[in-house]
Write a structure and sequence with these properties.
4 helices, alpha/beta
C-alpha cells in the first residue's frame, strides 16, 4: 500500500520558523516517500489541506507525525479531533498518528548529543 507522511507542527507567522520542518519533509521525499507539512495555526497548509493533497496522489495510508517535543494540549486534544474529521472525509484512506516526535528516546539522545558538542 502506498503511503505518505504529514509532518504536523504548531505554525508561526515567521516563515523562517518553518524551515526545519520543511527540511525534514525534503529528506523524507529524498527517501522516496511523498510528504507534506501541515500547521495547526498561523500559516498554511493546515492538516486537512495536506492530507487532501496526499489523498489526491492515490495513496492508501497517511502517517501524521506530530512535530512537538511533548504531548501537550495540541497533540492530546486538537489533533485527535482533526484526525477524526479527516477519517470521515477520506474513508478509503488509513490515517495513523505517531506519538509526538520529541517523546521518541532517539530524539532525546540526539538532542543531548547536540547539546554537549
Amino acid at each position: 500500500m502506498k503511503r505518505g507522511i504529514v509532518l504536523f507542527a504548531h505554525g508561526s507567522r515567521d516563515p523562517l520558523w518553518r524551515a526545519p520542518v520543511e527540511a525534514v519533509r525534503e529528506r523524507i521525499e529524498a527517501m522516496g516517500l511523498p510528504a507534506r507539512c501541515a500547521y495547526l495555526e498561523l500559516c498554511a497548509p493546515d492538516l486537512p489541506e495536506a492530507v487532501a493533497g496526499l489523498a489526491a496522489l492515490g495513496l492508501g495510508q497517511v502517517t501524521v507525525v506530530p512535530m512537538f517535543l511533548g504531548t501537550g494540549r495540541h497533540a492530546r486534544e486538537d489533533l485527535p479531533l482533526l484526525v477524526q474529521d479527516l477519517r470521515a472525509r477520506h474513508p478509503n484512506l488509513t490515517i495513523t498518528v505517531q506519538p509526538a516526535i520529541g517523546e521518541d528516546p532517539r530524539m532525546a539522545a540526539l538532542m543531548a548529543q547536540i547539546a554537549i558538542e
